[in-house]
Amino acid sequence: MNKLISAFFWICIFLCGQFFEDALAQKSEEWQAFMDEGAYRAASVEAERIYFEAETSHERAQAALARSWALKHLGEHQQARENLRRVSMRNLSPELEFRIHYERTLLHYLEGEFNDARNSLEQLRHFVDKPEWQDLAEYLEILSLIELNRWDDAYSATEDYLESIEASFSADSVFKQDPPRLRDPDRAEILSSFLPGAGLIYAGKPGGGLGNAAIQISALGWGVYNVLSGYYLTALFSGGGLFQAFYFGGIERAGVVANRHNEEETINYNAELTESLLRQIEPYLNKKRRTLKDSPFDIEQ
Q1: What is the predicted pLDDT for the residue at 93?
Q2: Domain that holds residue 233
Q3: pTM here?
Q4: Residue of higher predicted confidence among 249 and 70
Q5: Residue 197 backbone zone (phi > 0: left; psi -120 to 50: alpha; other: beta)
Q6: Which of 36, 82, 220, 301 would be a feasible disulfide site paired with 58, CB 3.0-4.6 Å?
Q7: What are the φ and ψ backbone dihedral angles of 197, each rounded to 5 degrees?
Q8: Which of the listed residues 36, 58, 90 is the one where a domain comes to its end?
Q9: CB within 8 A of 2, min separation 6: which ones?
């Protein structure tokens, strides 16, 4: 009798286990269908449902990663990163552990947190001991250095990276153009302090600098003319007031224009470097991506 009860017990466990496994597979297929349709909000909700119904830490990690993918497509990078914080990294398969570390690093980069992205990448290097997988993430180090305007360090990192993936091109093919000439905002303000309009000319706005200088000279001349004519109050409030407004305004604007010039130049230059790097390394990354599963739910424990 005891043997019959024991056999019945194990049969129930087997059937229930198979049932839950089939249910998880069906839910993951629904998530994938939403992703393929571009219904990322629905995919996020479905992944969250799978997370709360999961029975193992591995399944919860899979669901959390799936939800982060959906949130990333929605542009909600910070929420996607917060979603991954609840994942326990203990007892995960090597591939799932790598994918979560990689996703955290990528989300930091997409959010503009480039130093945090480099710190996260350092953790990935420490915990993931597969060079072929590390190569899939190392390019984020280069992209982060580019966005931090550390172009010399980015060039050196690119050389090392291209050597590690045995690329057929060099760092020189990525860094074709020289870095932009940046303007010092403090110098621009100092120049405008001593010579009206000079700071704006230095900052890259010669027309604005000449116009500012012309207005200041005209205001000063108008004030002198009124003083010589005996109209002292007119000289003070019209000529002197106008000169003062454009003098101090010109100083402040010179610094603003220099900063804006630097921002525009670096954004354009960094965009060119990023596009060139990604375009050339994409074939190499695709080869290495073939070793990874397409869906988080396909990653075995």
Answers
A1: 86
A2: 185-279
A3: 0.77
A4: 70
A5: left
A6: 301
A7: 85, -15
A8: 90
A9: none
19-28, 109-118, 182-191, 205-214: least confident range: 19-28
pLDDT score recorded for residue 89: 83
Angle (nearest 5°) at CA 289 between 283 and 294: 130
Could you report how far apart the first and last alpha carbons of the chain are, in Å?
37
Residue 183's pLDDT is what?
A: 87
DSSP 8-class letter at 180: P
Compute the average pLDDT of residues 59-77. 92
**Total number of domains in the chain:** 3
Residue 179 identity (one-letter amino acid) = P
* Cβ pair 69, 31 in contact under 8 A: no
Report d(CA 133, CA 100) in Å as an integer: 12
Shared domain check, 149 and 74: no
Q: Provide mean pLDDT across the span 114-133.
A: 86
Does residue 299 belong to any structural domain of this protein? no
How far CA 240 is from CA of 104, 215, 217, 223, 234, in Å, comes to 58, 12, 11, 6, 9
Assigned domain for 132 exists: yes
Instruction: Say whether pLDDT at 2 is over 60.
Output: no
* Residue 117: both structure tokens together: 């992205």
Measured between alpha carbons, how far is 155 from 174 in angstroms, rounded to an integer? 9
